[in-house]
Amino acid sequence: MTKIIFVRHGQTEWNLTGRYQGHTDIALTELGRRQAQCVASRLASERFAAIYSSDLTRAKDTAATIAAHHKLPVLTKPGLREINFGEWEGLTYGGIHSAWPAEMDSFFRAPGDVDIPGGENFNALQLRIGAALDEIIAAHRGETIAVVSHGGAIRAALCAALCMPLNAFWHIRQDNTAVNQIVYYPDEARAVVELVNDVNHLSQINAM
């Protein structure tokens, strides 16, 4: 078995303004950095064998804050990136809906069936994330690791672990620095989801 603790990155400026980020490399806000410190403190007692991250700055910086407590390097994997939003990157919901109303309606109603103009679809995202996780799991049998990634990527991993169709994608919430835990049993071709979207650590910010 391999236990993976998934963490979504901290808040970015485009999270604040509701812009679709995808593969665009957007940095954390000051609040995002504080969120990363909170989740790092929460995970400080975990015995991680390795810490992996998407190669995008918002994930890498969140991962580096976690890794500092464990004296481990951050191992980046492009396969852990968010979905590629193609022509939608940098646009808000309103901007996308005005230009692609049918596609945006399908994006929320039946995400597994929509093709994003110039980008990926959710099936491609899930296959990409699955391939990256297969490599990680094979390298870390019997160990606990952290994977810092993105809301869509983590949702895709959760859908796969729960045997849920991709059209149920938006039934899973992922807040900034949410903690999720999945235990993989590759010899049995199964996974057990133990935790989803836990952000109790962010109460530290409200107490400051």
Structure report:
Helix content is 38%, strand content 17%. By secondary structure, the protein is α/β, with parallel strands linked by helices. The protein has one domain: Phosphoglycerate mutase-like (Rossmann fold), CATH 3.40.50. It has a six-stranded mixed beta sheet. Helix 4 packs across helix 5 and helix 6 crosses helix 7. The radius of gyration is 16 Å and the shape is globular.
Write a compact overview of the structure shown.
This protein is α/β, with parallel strands linked by helices and 208 residues long. It has helices spanning 13-17, 30-42, 57-67, 93-99, 101-109, 122-139, 151-161, 203-207, and strands at residues 2-8, 50-53, 74-76, 144-149, 179-185, 190-198.
Order of helices and strands: EHHEHEHHHEHEEH
Secondary structure: number of strands: 6
In spatial order, strands of the major sheet run 3-2-4-1-5-6
Mean of all residue-level pLDDT scores: 96
CATH architecture: 3-Layer(aba) Sandwich
Range of helix content: 25-40%
Which outline best applies? Answer: globular
The CATH topology name reads: Rossmann fold
**What gap, in angstroms, lies between the N and C termini?**
39 Å
Q: In the CATH hierarchy, what is the class?
A: Alpha Beta
- Show unreliable segments: none
